[in-house]
Specification:
Blueprint (H helix, E strand, L loop, with lengths): L7 H11 L3 E4 L1 H14 L3 E6 L6 H8 L4 E4 L2 H9 L4 H4 E3 L6 H9 L4 E4 L2 H10 L4 E5 L7 E3 L12 H10 L3 E6 L4 E3 L3 H19 L6 E3 L15 H15 L5 E4 L3 H4 L3 E13 L2 E6 L8 H6 L5 E3 L5 E7 L20 E4 L6 E4 L20 E4 L2
Parallel strand pairs: 1-18, 2-3, 2-11, 3-4, 5-6, 6-8, 8-10, 10-11, 13-15
Antiparallel strand pairs: 1-12, 7-9, 12-13, 12-17, 14-17, 15-16
The chain binds pyridoxal-5'-phosphate.
């Protein structure tokens, strides 16, 4: 059940009990999303990218259905272990830029699979996790994705073999190759192209004496925010077909989805706490904003679905958060400029319900100005 579809009475009852701002979560939707990915990617072992949402009950829900976790820091490792994950079997350290203290901590408790994309990371992993298994992350096309990751992460495929050989020569155990097609990727072909590039790297590495046995296909699986056509089974079929065509069945597949596991399992309820008119436009100020749940509006122009619990005539509003910074405005156009959105007339104390708030909301929220992240409430 997508909690964005809860009726007015149910939302008002939750707000009466818990106040606002409030994350309303469906555990069943999280399980369904995970199972749908698992079914669509039958040959793939799934490690939930917990950066998307590390809330403890969400992690426990996923640990309870057999998910592994992709972690990026000591803090994420601790949270995953607290949720029930075993460091050796259930965790991969897939961030390519690692604090060496966190590598040493991971190694000390048995986490043995790290991702790298440059020589200094080889040095750091070999120093702090000698003999560890490693995946080399490749830069692949992120065209069609909302968040482009390959300009920061990933080695060019032409540099793959020297980097794999360097890892081996440093005493590490190159296990395979990883890539990420970019977050909220709407082009299925990106996974197929990346698998074809990976195949070439496997061949070149074998010719250089490095045998690879694993492919990490990253995350990027999309969520429906507006009218995007999302077809996870179609992505799965394309990945499966490419895998069977290009690789021996002994090659293991791993994925690190974040957004698609939790994105539509959470809605936010936020309240109008102030109103004004500025330069002829009506502004509504809410108890959550860009320093809280709406960071992705600033970062990636993400357009979250919104509905009110009022039924007045439509009116254009600028929507702003509560902090003292002028950037704290979450109604923005495709260029990132402040704009109005049409909503049924709203005033002080009225509630706004925002859908698709499971991924990169709570995890990216700050405590700027002393505002705490919203409370979580689970409806099933
Ligand atoms: C290394 C890595 N893995 C997985 C993910 C999850 O990606 P998504 O939420 O798009 O599935 C990310 C997102 O930034 C990432 O950096």
């Amino acid at each position: 059940m997508n909690p964005y579809d809860l009726d007015r009475a149910a939302i008002e009852a939750l707000v009466a009990e818990h106040g606002t701002p409030l994350y309303v979560v469906s555990r069943e939707q999280i399980r369904e999303n995970f199972r749908r990915l698992d079914a669509a990617l039958p040959a793939v072992q799934i490690f939930y990218a917990m950066k998307a949402n590390p809330q403890e009950e969400i992690l426990a829900t996923l640990a309870g259905i057999g998910a592994g976790f992709d972690v990026a820091s000591r803090g994420e490792i601790l949270a995953a272990v607290e949720a029930g994950a075993s460091p050796r079997e259930d965790l991969i350290f897939a961030d390519t830029v690692k604090d060496p203290k966190h590598i040493a901590y991971a190694h000390g408790i048995g986490l043995d699979d790290f991702t790298y994309d440059n020589r200094s990371e080889i040095t750091q992993i070999a120093r702090h996790a000698p003999g560890a298994f490693v995946h080399l992350r490749l830069a692949v096309s992120n065209e069609g994705a909302v968040a482009h990751l390959s300009h920061k992460f990933g080695a060019p495929p032409a540099e793959a073999v020297p980097l794999l050989a360097a890892a081996r020569d440093a005493g590490l155990r190159p296990r395979g190759v990883s890539f990420h097609v970019g977050s909220q990727c709407l082009e299925t072909q990106r996974w197929v192209d990346a698998l074809e590039t990976t195949r070439r790297v496997f061949d070149d590495a074998a010719a250089a004496g490095v045998t690879l046995t694993s492919v990490d296909i990253g995350g990027g699986f999309p969520v429906r925010y507006a009218d995007e056509k999302i077809d996870i089974p179609a992505i799965g079929r394309a990945v499966d077909e490419a895998y069977r065509r290009l690789f021996d069945p002994s090659v293991e597949l791993v994925a690190e989805p974040g957004r698609a596991v939790v994105g539509d399992a959470v809605c936010l309820v936020t309240k109008v706490i102030s109103e004004s008119t500025r330069d002829g436009r009506d502004w509504l100020y809410f108890d959550d904003g860009t320093y809280g749940s709406f960071m992705e509006v600033l970062l990636y122009r993400m357009g979250f679905p919104m509905r009110t619990l009022t039924d007045g005539p439509e009116h254009p509003y600028v929507l702003a958060g509560p902090t003292c910074d002028c950037i704290d405005v979450f109604s923005r156009d495709d260029e990132g400029e402040i704009c109005t959105v049409d909503l049924p007339e709203m005033h002080l104390d009225d509630l706004l319900v925002v859908g698709g708030m499971g991924a990169y909301t709570f995890s990216e929220s700050t405590r700027f100005n002393g505002f705490e992240p919203p409370e979580f409430v689970f409806v099933d």
